From TrEMBL:
Organism taxonomic ancestry: Eukaryota, Metazoa, Chordata, Craniata, Vertebrata
Domain of life: Eukaryota
Name this protein carries in UniProt: Transferrin receptor protein 1-like
One term under GO cellular component: external side of plasma membrane
GO biological process: intracellular iron ion homeostasis; iron ion transport
Length: 652
């Protein structure tokens, strides 16, 4: 069933040490407010069953060594009217509306005595040129297009129109097997499965001259002329200052992110896509290929017959963007930070994308401040609330802030509040490049998690004018308010653990399965190369496997140390936390430049240094080099977990 279920949680009154916090049931109280309670089980894990989260494998509650978990319940009033306070359709990054909303959030933090501050960046953002719109010409028809893809190359190109399903590598392999030439073509793909940026990068790798992206009826329940917006930067932050912050006083030579596409890309409406597919020509794909979409009036032929012209005329504008922060300072370790963030800007209405997340962020700030001021709650670590701008352009605001302050933030960790949708299933999966918290993990090496509430076919209205309060209410069976409260509770409980527990709830042992799978992929790849006759002198993944063993032994020893430590000893816990926090950062490759390869994470980054890339490399010299570097990257991570230098694992 796609319907969202309402939740009611019940538990006995729990305590944080000697401080008692009351519970708040979902049913209406005497004053008409609704409150929500979430129970934590005795082993320290939340009893949530309907959340999908994305993040590093370590970001899950680790079993606690005390019998009764420490917890507090947050008072959360009705959020729907509060959401309306931050509803601001057309709040594009750097616009007057964006600045006005930033000021409102600043004022809220100031009222809460949270010492607010603003982080300002001067960035270059692409927008359509109203005097010279983007166009597609196919046969005798000309289409003037409204939607656009930020950071597309600007150009006018012509090529054979080819249909490539979702534009994944395996999809393009099928096109090639049907003897359709991809070099120089204009590739038509349907949105979904992977990001716009990945679709364009895959097409460019095969020599395509341009990419057109449309929402297929099989994946998106849109009206015919719904316009799509997005970005195609295979990275995050301002791509014109890669690896360093965008300030107007920054003295760096002009440079560009390696993730900027060199070919034009453009979105189409369904109605335009149907007209192209009806006349594309060429062979029909095999029934088992998965290329057939939901349009009954077309056969989804592969094309390669008819010419099409694509013209993209987007222009760059200089914009000043403001990130807004408030802080509740820690009482024991104020120099350790937990960051809760939410995107503020949006293309179109952006109700689920930005309004709900912003509302949850500010309401959580109120709840935590109330706990500190009136209930005697004393967080050990500092809790930073962040409202990001330019998130729609690829986490620009968050990344620019990280580029300034990564060194400070390595002592803390981030939890990113993402959009709130309907709820049905509970999953934990690796972050994708489009995730708001991805740069925290893959660029800065900070343990991070992003979550949202979904139903199986996912909320599909991001980046359109359909992302409205009415649409979200329809998708949630008019339970947006209750679900938003659940999301706030989930984020709040997670933040409570991280700011209050002596020991951080991060279990690095959970990386073992991910590492084993990645190393097995390298073994398989090298074995296959050998079987097809590739000469692999002195090339073996055994050293990488030994480094994996070192990592697992170090993780095991770390948790043995935890088991044998008095967790009431604050200094001992601080030392253990430092060892835990080093893991994610040590998985960033020290052998690549953050300017050229911003996402340096060995497992979840992007580039030739990653284990996933090594498992596909066919150049033997490159394979040899990257295998050696990855081995020492992983061994360095294992060493970082070791408490004493004389305990370093020498088995490699």
């Amino acid at each position: 069933s796609g319907a969202c279920r309402s939740h009611s949680f019940h538990s006995d009154l729990l305590q944080v040490r000697s401080v008692r916090y009351s519970r708040f049931p979902l049913q209406p109280t005497e004053n008409g407010e609704r409150h929500l309670e979430v129970k934590l089980s005795e082993d320290g894990t939340e009893e949530f069953t309907d959340v999908e989260a994305e993040g590093s494998p370590s970001f899950r509650p680790a079993p606690q060594n005390y019998s009764r978990c420490s917890i507090a319940f947050l008072l959360l009033g009705t959020l729907c009217p509060f959401c309306r306070d931050f509803e601001n359709p057309g709040c594009s990054a750097g616009s007057d509306k964006d600045m006005s909303l930033a000021n409102s959030i600043f004022d809220e933090f100031k009222k809460l005595e949270m010492d607010p501050w603003t982080d300002i960046h001067d960035v270059q953002l692409p927008i359509p040129d109203s005097q010279n719109p983007n166009k597609v010409q196919f046969g005798s028809e000309d289409f003037s297009l409204t939607g656009y893809l930020a950071y597309s190359a600007t150009d006018r190109v012509q090529g054979k129109l080819v249909y490539g399903n979702y534009g994944r590598k395996e999809d393009l392999d099928i096109v090639n097997k049907n003897k359709i030439e991809l070099k120089g073509c204009v590739l038509l793909v349907r949105a979904g499965k992977i990001s716009f940026a990945e679709q364009v990068a895959n097409a460019a790798d095969r020599g395509a001259s341009a990419v057109l992206i449309y929402p297929d009826e099989a994946d998106y329940n849109y009206v015919a002329d719904t316009v799509l917006y997005g970005h195609v930067h295979l990275g995050s932050g301002d791509p014109y200052t890669p690896g360093f912050p965008s300030f107007n006083h920054t003295q760096f030579p002009p440079t560009r992110s390696s993730g900027l596409p060199k070919i034009p890309a453009q979105t189409l409406t369904r109605s335009v896509a149907v007209k192209l597919l009806q006349k594309i020509g060429g062979p029909e794909p095999d029934e088992t290929s998965g290329f057939k979409g939901g349009f009954k009036q077309v056969s989804y032929r592969l094309g390669g017959v008819e010419n099409i012209t694509v013209e993209v005329n987007n222009k760059l504008v200089n914009k000043e963007i403001h990130n807004v922060f408030g802080v509740i300072k820690g009482f024991d370790d104020p120099d350790r930070y937990i960051v809760l963030g939410a995107q503020r800007d949006a293309w179109g209405s952006g109700y689920a994308r930005a309004t709900v997340g912003t509302s949850v962020l500010v309401q959580l700030a109120k709840a935590f401040r109330e706990m500190v001021k009136n209930d005697g709650f004393r967080p050990r670590r500092s809790l930073v609330f962040a409202s990001w701008s330019a998130g729609e352009y690829g986490s620009v605001g968050a990344t620019e802030w990280l580029e300034v302050r990564t060194a400070y933030l390595l002592k803390g960790n981030a939890c990113c509040v993402d959009s709130v949708l309907t709820c049905l299933i509970c999953l934990m999966r690796p972050m994708t490049i489009d995730d708001p918290a991805y740069p925290f993990l893959a660029f800065s090496g900070i343990p991070s998690v992003s979550f949202h509430f979904i139903k199986p076919n996912v909320y599909t209205y991001y980046g359109t004018q359909l992302d409205t309060m009415d649409q979200l209410n329809y998708e949630t069976n008019n339970q947006t308010n209750e679900i938003t409260a659940i999301a706030a509770q989930f984020a709040g409980q997670m933040a409570l653990h991280l700011v209050h527990d002596h020991l951080l709830s991060l279990d690095v042992n959970r990386y073992s399965k991910t590492l084993t799978k990645a190393v097995a992929g390298v073994y398989k790849h090298i074995r296959l190369l050998s079987q097809v006759g590739v000469f692999l002198t002195d090339l073996s993944p055994s050293w990488l496997n030994r480094a994996r063993g070192s990592f697992q032994r170090a993780a095991s020893n770390l948790y043995n140390d935890i088991a044998n430590t008095n967790l009431d000893d604050k200094e001992a816990c601080r030392i253990l936390n430092n060892r835990i926090m080093m893991v994610e950062h040590s998985l960033l490759s020290p052998y690549v430049s953050p300017v050229k390869v911003p996402f340096r994470h060995l497992l979840f980054g992007r580039g030739s240094h990653t284990l996933a890339s090594i498992a596909e490399t066919t150049d033997v010299d490159e394979l040899h080099t990257q295998l050696a570097l990855a081995t020492w990257n992983l061994q360095g991570c294992a060493n970082a977990m070791v408490g004493n230098i004389w305990d370093l694992d020498e088995e490699i």
